[in-house]
Amino acid sequence: xxxxxxxxxxxxxxxxxxxxxxxxxxxxxxxxxxxxxxxxxxxxxxxxxxxxxxxxxxxxxxxxxxxxxxxxxxxxxxxxxxxxxxxxxxxxxxxxxxxxxxxxxxxxxxxxxxxxxxxxxxxxxxxxxxxxxxxxxxxxxxxxxxxxxxxxxxxxxxxxxxxxxxxxxxxxxxxxxxxxxxxxxxxxxxxxxxxxxxxxxxxxxxxxxxxxxxxxxxxxxxxxxxxxxxxxxxxxxxxxxxxxxxxxxxxxxxxxxxxxxxxxxxxxxxxxxxxxxxxxxxxxxxxxxxxxxxxxxxxxxxxxxxxxxxxxxxxxxxxxxxxxxxxxx
Length: 329
Known about the structure:
Blueprint: H1 17-43, E1 60-61, E2 67-68, E3 88-93, E4 102-111, E5 117-122, E6 125-130, E7 138-145, E8 153-155, E9 165-169, E10 174-178, E11 184-190, E12 205-212, E13 218-224, E14 236-243, E15 246-253, E16 258-263, E17 269-271, E18 276-279, E19 282-287, E20 295-301, E21 305-308, H2 314-328
Parallel strand pairs: 6-8, 7-9
Antiparallel strand pairs: 1-2, 3-4, 4-7, 5-6, 9-10, 10-11, 11-12, 12-13, 13-19, 14-15, 14-20, 15-16, 16-17, 18-19, 20-21
């Protein structure tokens, strides 16, 4: 666009209305632009919240060389938070199907390498978990049926691998070990020490364990408080394994002779030809059938009964396991 030249004024000449308008128009436009620029600059925040001041872009040149920072706001990416699984899950259970429910709980524990004890705060009070120093570190589960008093300590066997589960019924003292694939490796009945009156400690049963082989078959190992001392003041003494309705006995006569006996469901007995191994204070029976049957043990002499354990019932442990899976996942 071309503007008309500004006329030269001589003294006494009159300025026409059109000439004044042509002279002032560019000046007014320049002033309007200046006012708008200063107004916009005054509206820009000088202190942005958080770290937005640090996220400003490079200065942008403006009229008269004034530098204005143009804010660039980075959009935050929202990442869902990981929901942590609670360490304790409490649920009701009716193990004997009596219609009366008791409390049970699943405890998730983390075993650290090199440790041999861990104090667990259970629903029944503190419980000291003990394990061999070579226990592999990792996560494990302990499911407790709170049907009796919590003992002071509970032994974790090396068979409880990382990712595995131990089930514990405080009412019977029974425990069961399962691996991460839910295969049952071991089932144990625990019995208190020194619960016999006037009978030698080699008849004091402290545990009975059924160890199940992945390829089939199982062994049952019975442990007494001490090894046999070779002293037999009675006509005989027995240590019996109870399996279902049958019994397997190791009888020692007063002469020291050992006899292996089998009792059927009707009480008829015969010499047993199966495998029975004695080592120190343990007796181990090797079995092919009856892996799901209830089991326990007892001891006696010709004069009196000595000791007896509770009965391990596989269906109770399975009920406890199913209730934990249904309630706690």
